[in-house]
Amino acid sequence: MNIVVTGGAGFIGGNFVYYELEKHPEDKIICFDALTYAGNMETLDEAMKNPQFVFVKGDIANRDDVDKLFNEHKPDIVVNFAAESHVDRSIENPGIFLQTNVLGTQVLMDACRKYGIKRYHQVSTDEVYGDLPLDRPDMFFTEETPLHTSSPYSASKASADLLVMAYHRTYQLPVTISRCSNNYGPFHFPEKLIPLMIINALHDKKLPVYGEGINVRDWLYVKDHCSAIDLIIRNGKVGEVYNIGGHNERQNIQVVKTILKELNKPESLIEHVTDRKGHDRRYAIDPTKIHNELGWLPATKFDDGIKATIKWYLDNEDWWQRIVSGEYQSYYEKMYSNR
Ligand code: NAD
Ligand code: DAU
User: What is the CATH number of domain 2-336?
Assistant: First the structure.
């Protein structure tokens, strides 16, 4: 099969490219990516050596780019990871989130209709459900939880999900949607909590924890997200939504302290800074459906995954040094100085 992976030069898409090349060597993987600030060809260095892998530079919101992609590569499956993905950036500049995450999804699905496709898979997020109270550990997001978004990022992802279901109902496009909790692992862009804290700690820089640090995220090792999507695109039921998560809830402050402990750095590096606007309190996924219907279970415990992730950042300094020494520096200054 020909599988187009949009956003494959980013964090999760890059991990998915490697997962598919290893698990299904018979399939051809075509990565389609605009190489925004978050896309990195170095993530794909090893994949580029594989004859089953092709890289195409292009924008999912550009009809000419997408038409050319479909004409040349005739995909059987499209897995759409391409997105603007950082909540803090969406608070600063919502426009590009609507352009890429909503209109880009529409352009891709229009091409799927025009050229025909076996499956269009939308990689969505648990953030479309909004947040849960901190004092109700019995509450979880199920696929029936109403959409109720907080940030321009989550609103753009929820809008895309609605459009995907509309294309299924109206045009019978064979779609699936997955909504996953927070990922961590190799190739994670350093603007996000875990890599940012690892890299700051390695430089003995302050670790900026928003507010009291009591917000809760439900962490999943990225490879487990990839294995879930792989099952959904091959065995999932058309028109269905699948939640993905591994019951790994942690307060942000706990995560940060774990990283400091692993790196043998002092907790005095922690600095509480002004909270994120509209900060979601708690995310927690109920993964019963994907477990019961597709037999999916996560393979990596948080304690092992965080150690493996820290080791990856220690072993791959070249990868992140080039990022943090570039335009990321001015982003960091803008977001964190005087916060
Ligand atoms: P990322 O920001 O690391 O990577 C995004 C990739 O998309 C980059 O390679 C970028 O160049 C590319 N891209 C951006 N705009 C594009 C465009 N217009 N056309 C083509 N390519 C474009 O993101 P990520 O963290 O890997 O997230 C991937 C997907 O998974 C997103 O859809 C996100 O909403 C979703 N998701 C992320 C998480 C998480 O914890 N990171 C959890 C659940 C769902
Ligand atoms: O839940 C899935 C979502 O997880 C994905 O849809 C998003 O694409 C992904 O970016 C992620 O969103 P979060 O906002 O949860 O991730 P982030 O790493 O930005 O922040 C995690 C938590 O840590 C959040 O409560 C904010 C906090 N934080 C973050 C940063 C960057 C800090 O305290 N300090 C920081 O410097």
Answer: 3.40.50.720
Q: Strand 216-218 and strand 77-80: pairing?
A: unpaired
Distances (CA, A) of 326 to 86, 92, 138, 188: 18, 20, 44, 16
Radius of gyration of the chain (CA): 19
pLDDT grade for 222, boundaries at 50, 70 and 90? very high
Tens of pLDDT, residues 36-73: 999 999 999 999 999 999 999 999 999 999 999 999 99
> Residue 126: CA atoms inside 13 Å, Cβ hemisphere, count?
28
Helix axes 63-73, 104-115, angle to 10 degrees: 40
Beta strands in 20-76 (DSSP E): 28-33, 53-57
Ligand nearest to the CA of 6: 1
Nearest 10 degrees: Cα torsion 8, 107, 112, 6: 0
Substitution candidate for ligand 2 out of 84, 87, 216, 324 with most atoms within 8 A of CB:
87
Ligand 2 atom nearest 126 alpha carbon: 1
Give the residues surrounding ligand 2 with Cβ less than 6 Å away: 85-87, 125-127, 181-182, 192-193, 196, 208-210, 215, 217, 252, 276, 283
Cβ neighbours of residue 95 under 8 Å, at least 6 residues apart? none
Position 339 pLDDT exceeds 90: no
Q: Report which of 180, 1, 157 is spatially closest to residue 78, judged by C-alpha positions.
A: 1
Greater model confidence, 58 or 322: 58
* 274-320 tens-digit pLDDT: 999 999 999 999 999 999 999 999 999 999 999 999 999 999 999 99
| The model scores a pTM over 0.90 | yes
